[in-house]
Write a structure and sequence with these properties.
GO molecular function: O-acyltransferase activity
CATH architecture: 3 Solenoid
CATH topology: UDP N-Acetylglucosamine Acyltransferase, domain 1
Low-confidence stretches: none
Protein name: Sugar O-acetyltransferase
Family: Belongs to the transferase hexapeptide repeat family.
Mean pLDDT: 95
Oligomer: single chain
Distance between the termini: 36 Å
Pfam families: Hexapep, Hexapep_2
CATH class: Mainly Beta
Helix content: 10-25%
Organism: Companilactobacillus futsaii
Order of helices and strands: EHHEEEEEEEEEEEEEEEEEE
Number of domains: 1
Length: 180
C-alpha cells in the first residue's frame, strides 16, 4: 500500500489522537519487569490486535504509532527493535526479528516546503523470514518467504523468497536451496 498523509488534514488529526495514548503505553511497557503474557497483552493493546500466545517479544519494544503493525504467529522480536508503522508493517508467521532492527514504513518528502508531510509505503515480511541484528528496512520493501537479511544490512529493495542478502545497501549473497 502506498499513500500520502499531509499535516493539518482530518486523517493526520486522527493519528495525533492515537499517538499520545500509545506512546504512554509503550513507555509503561518499557519501564518495568513483565512476564511474556503481560508483554503480549500490552503490545496487543498498542496495536489493537491480539498477539498469539506463540509469539515472543523482548523489551524494550518501540513503535511510533502501533495501530498499523500486524504480527503473525510464532514470531520472535528481539530487544530494541523499532517499528515505524504508520504506513503498515506486516510480519508473517515464524518471522525472526533480531535485536535493534528498524523497520520504517514512513518517509518524508524531498521538497523542503512539504518535508513534514508523510509518504506511507507498507513493509511486508513474509513467513519464515529471519532479519538479523541491526538491520534497517526502508518503506515499501517486501522480504520474501524463508529469506535471511544479514546483520547490519540496509534493505532498500525487495528481497526474493529463499534468498540471503547483506550489506549496505543489501545485495543478494545467495539463494537458499533445500539445506539440511
Amino acid at each position: 500500500m502506498e499513500s500520502q498523509m499531509n499535516l493539518g488534514t482530518k486523517a493526520y488529526e486522527q493519528i495525533e489522537k492515537i499517538v499520545p495514548i500509545n506512546q504512554k503505553l509503550v513507555q509503561e511497557l518499557n519501564t518495568g519487569a513483565h512476564t511474556s503474557d503481560e508483554i503480549r497483552q500490552a503490545v496487543s493493546q498498542i496495536i489493537n490486535e491480539t498477539i498469539d500466545s506463540s509469539t515472543e517479544i523482548r523489551l524494550p519494544f518501540w513503535t511510533d504509532f502501533g495501530r498499523n503493525l500486524h504480527i503473525g504467529k510464532n514470531v520472535f522480536i528481539n530487544s530494541g527493535s523499532m517499528f515505524t508503522d504508520m504506513g503498515g508493517i506486516y510480519l508473517g508467521d515464524n518471522v525472526l526479528i533480531g535485536p535493534n532492527v528498524t523497520i520504517a514504513s514512513v518517509n518524508h518528502r524531498v521538497d523542503p516546503v512539504q518535508r513534514r508531510h508523510l509518504d506511507l509505503k507498507s513493509v511486508y515480511i513474509h513467513d519464515n523470514a529471519w532479519i538479523g541484528s541491526n538491520v534497517t528496512i526502508t518503506p515499501g520493501v517486501v522480504i520474501g518467504e524463508n529469506s535471511i537479511v544479514g546483520a547490519g544490512a540496509v534493505v532498500t529493495k525487495n528481497v526474493p523468497a529463499n534468498t540471503i542478502v547483506g550489506g549496505v545497501p543489501a545485495q543478494i549473497i545467495r539463494t537458499i536451496k533445500g539445506e539440511n
